[in-house]
Amino acid sequence: MGYHIISIIPYIWFINVFFCTMTILITGAGGFVGRYATAYFKEKYPDDKILEADIRGTDLAINLLDKDKVRALIKEEKPSKILHLAGKSSVGLSLKEPMETFEANIGSFLNIMEAVRLENLTPKVVLVSSSDVYGVTKTQANARLETDCINPGSPYAASKAALELIGRQYYTHFGIKTIIARPFNHTGPGHPDVFVLPSFAKQLTTIRKTNGDPVLYTGNIEVERDFLDVRDVVRAYYMLFEKGKSGETYNICSGGALPIRWMLEEMISLCGIHVEVRNDASLSRKNDMPILVGSNEKLKQDTGWQPEIPISETLKGLIEYWEKK
Questions:
Q1: Which of 106, 170, 289, 312 has the fewest CB within 10 Å, making it most exposed?
Q2: For residue 196, what is the enclosing H or E element?
Q3: Which H or E run includes 79?
Q4: Which CATH number fits the domain 14-188+227-254+293-309, given the four candidates 3.40.50.720, 3.40.50.620, 3.30.70.120, 2.160.20.10?
Q5: Where do the domains of the chain lie?
Q6: Measured distance CA(17)–CA(255) in Å, rounded
Q7: pLDDT at residue 123, as a whole number
């Protein structure tokens, strides 16, 4: 009796399509946002391999500035999705260390995209840029649109603008399905205290726990910013993978700005203490934008994303985190 070998081919195809796992590469997985993203993606993609790449604190410790190691990683793992979070994220630090900021932010992404090109892969890439690329404009009271001109006002913002240009080139010429995400300010438990709201939370909880000098130091708290909870931002990254359009840019924001002073007063109220607020000139930045707010209409229309976590809950979470610290 003969064997009909050809008849099993459709079944092999079925097995490959429906049972093979994908590899999802998250760079910067050991950072603040990266930890939230990794946890959320493991929940949403339970049958896929989540590859956590970072220079610290992950299963895969890799220097993304080493192009040979990056090439070897991409060749071996062949990721079908890449969330690029790695890099330096502090505006203040970029003003002190501009060269290091450019090298870290541009070099790491360029190594990844070039490795993907050389391996003839076409993964979906969500490149995390920043709302800071918009900079100061004449119409800064208006919500920023993705089509607005950009005017980066710091080395950090300039490095992110450069990443966007690089991402577009690899999409246009090499077919790598790149999506540019422009998150506005976001925070949550675990956010380092070099950033404004975690700094307030740390100072307030320290004053309350130690009965120390009730003085809180701030930079310019009259500016207004569009804040989201980090968990809403991570959920937006997931939605971009699922429904975002390659070659497009998306703001990730609440659509409304709040004064930093108001958020500080809310945090003081949550702590139930009285403090004196003092301005520290060293904490203020030159050319700081009085207001930065974005439009999230494009993101909502294309993906169905909506912000879910109110800022009051985020501020409460920050206070509770620093109380435990």
A1: 312
A2: helix 196-210
A3: none
A4: 3.40.50.720
A5: 14-188+227-254+293-309
A6: 40
A7: 97
> Would you list the DSSP string of 99-148?
HHHHHHHHHHHHHHHHHHHHTT---EEEEE--GGGG-S-TTTTSPB-TTS
Q: Which amino acid is at 289?
A: M
Phi and psi angles of residue 211, each rounded to the nearest 5 degrees, phi first: 55, 35
Structure tokens at 257: 């700005």
pLDDT the model gives residue 138: 55
Sign of the four-CA dihedral 26, 181, 156, 264: negative
* Region label for 290, one of left (φ > 0), alpha (ψ between -120 and 50) or beta (otherwise): alpha
> Which of 55-64, 86-95, 305-314 bottoms out in mean pLDDT, i.e. has the lowest?
55-64
Residue 198 CB neighbours (<10 A): 21
111-121, pLDDT tens digit by residue?
999 999 999 99
